[in-house]
Design brief:
- The protein is an alpha/beta fold.
- It has one domain: Rhodanese-like domain (Oxidized Rhodanese, domain 1, 3-Layer(aba) Sandwich).
- It contains five helices and five strands, in the order E-H-E-H-E-H-E-H-E-H.
- Strand 2, helix 2 and strand 3 form a beta-alpha-beta unit.
- The radius of gyration is 12 Å and the shape is globular.
- This is Rhodanese-related sulfurtransferase.
- It comes from Alysiella filiformis DSM 16848.
Length: 107
């Protein structure tokens, strides 16, 4: 299965429709200190190879970063490891703050 990109609006609906899914934040600690999407699991991109065992392989995973580039790379890496049901938040948390939740700070 290929990785599907979701707009912020599509991701919000997807997460609502699939409450068992994981919202994976792959940004750095200092970025998360600025803002995050409520309910997300934070594993920085550079720690994914060490901590991917923390991710269930039987539920959808929506990956996000600042603008969607790092998250797509992480999704491709997870796909290579055998994960499927992967989604990338296109535009990242920046798009989320503009389209879904204006209380999420932009940086």
């Amino acid at each position: 299965m290929s990785i599907q990109s979701l707009t912020a609006t599509e991701a919000a609906q997807f997460l609502q429709d699939n409450p068992d899914s994981i919202l994976l934040d792959v940004r750095e600690d200092d970025e998360v200190a600025l803002c995050h999407i409520s309910g997300s699991l934070h594993i920085p991109m550079n720690l994914i190879p060490l901590r991917n065992n923390e991710l269930p392989d039987d539920v959808p995973i929506v990956v996000y970063c600042h603008h969607g580039i790092r998250s797509m790379n992480v999704a491709r890496y997870l796909e290579h490891l055998g994960f499927d049901n992967l989604y990338n938040l296109s535009g990242g948390i920046d798009a989320w703050s503009q389209q879904i939740d204006p209380n999420v700070a932009r940086y």
